[in-house]
Amino acid sequence: MFKKILVAEDIESINQGVHSILERLQVQHISHAQYCDDALLRIKRAIYDKNPFELLICDLSFKKDHRNVTLSSGQELIALLKKEQPNLKIIVFTIEDHPQIASTLINDCEVEGYVLKNRKGLAELEEAIKKVAQNKSYISPQLATTLKRNNLVVLPEYEIQLLTHLANGLTQDQIELHFKKQGITPNSRSAIEKRLKDLRDDFNAQTTVHLVTIVKDLQLI
Amino acid sequence: MFKKILVAEDIESINQGVHSILERLQVQHISHAQYCDDALLRIKRAIYDKNPFELLICDLSFKKDHRNVTLSSGQELIALLKKEQPNLKIIVFTIEDHPQIASTLINDCEVEGYVLKNRKGLAELEEAIKKVAQNKSYISPQLATTLKRNNLVVLPEYEIQLLTHLANGLTQDQIELHFKKQGITPNSRSAIEKRLKDLRDDFNAQTTVHLVTIVKDLQLI
DNA sequence: ACATCCCTTACGGAAATCCGTAAGGGATTG
DNA sequence: CAATCCCTTACGGATTTCCGTAAGGGATGT
């Protein structure tokens, strides 16, 4: 079992719940951070002290308050940490069940666990901690099944840019111009139209407005 | 102070936190419901038993699981309850800080309290319970300030329909036709165009796609 | 080399949207 | 009653988007 764990989570009542589990698992050093910035500092400090954390249990969304923070989300924190301390195990503990977001963290950021805060969340978290301590990984069952069958759509960077510009109010002419300035290809009017047509087909969108709302709902842009 | 309180909340660790507060406030009867349907049943039953609840502390979002539920959100529950037991006090305790949603609950559904689950959430909840027990109302400070200055936009039903149809892939021609069938006026092509132009101006949208993404982000549709 | 495939670009016409103007019809007000 | 205001509708032209066709170029395979 882990000896030194950091919990990054801003809601106190959930912190209490997590803490009680860690105590039951007889974790010796339990630290808490209510801000992402704090979490990063503590982890850096622990490395400097030659006594690094072994596991981070991390929420994704942190409420803003009066404090100025540079890291506002768990995603940013995790992305940094994988450079700072690659051997640090990470379990995401969040209410966020959107497959797109979970998939990015699991596959790209390579977190070791992803646990949903639901009715049985704490029990699952305990399970996850045990698994990860054995060098296995853990993903909440509901999420695991949807991730498997849900053949996730990942939009290529080009399509993301195209749709984002549309959503932000650029006309196709403006996008063509912009792509030419930035050296992004293809940038002809024709190609842009064709991509949009293909995307409409792919997503069964009747109009371009429809298309943009669909990809926004799917959080692809 | 209240003697009989129901807590509708699906995440166990938060339930624990709320429970500990209610105990400190020496509430005699504390009930919990992990599903909206359960909450409704318990409240009805309590009325039938001539021993109704005095206060409901209610989350908004409830995770779906294997159980079939008819009420899937706190909003639906609250809307029903205000008919079922008009004198029941309600405090919303949620992570949802979108002013649009909060405003609807506070002004339309007339809940007595709206507390955000943030770093000081439990302390605020305690404060709210005390206030509401004195027939006052309570709104989380952060929210209260934004609600005041944020001169909330409320879109008339007609505009909501128009934009929703656009977002769902109808062309302006199809919308004109649809409005005529439904007897919704104005339904001329011209009027539809004019409304969209006005809306684009109101929201500083460059294009119609832009407009739709803006109102979707604001959760106006 | 040649054929094939895939992608980009170009072009032209159809369709949809955008925009301004103007006419008509209620409601309000002097 | 007349004047005014506001909204709806109609219409025409400009702009934008949509769609099909075709030409050109690079990569791959035979």
Automatic annotation (TrEMBL), chains A, B:
Superkingdom to which the source organism belongs: Bacteria
Keyword RNA-binding attributed: no
SUPFAM superfamilies with a match to the protein in the record: CheY-like
GO biological process: phosphorelay signal transduction system
Domain Response regulatory: 4-132
Keywords: DNA-binding, Phosphoprotein
Modification type 4-aspartylphosphate: residues: D59
Molecular-function annotations in GO: DNA binding
Protein's name according to its UniProt entry: Response regulator
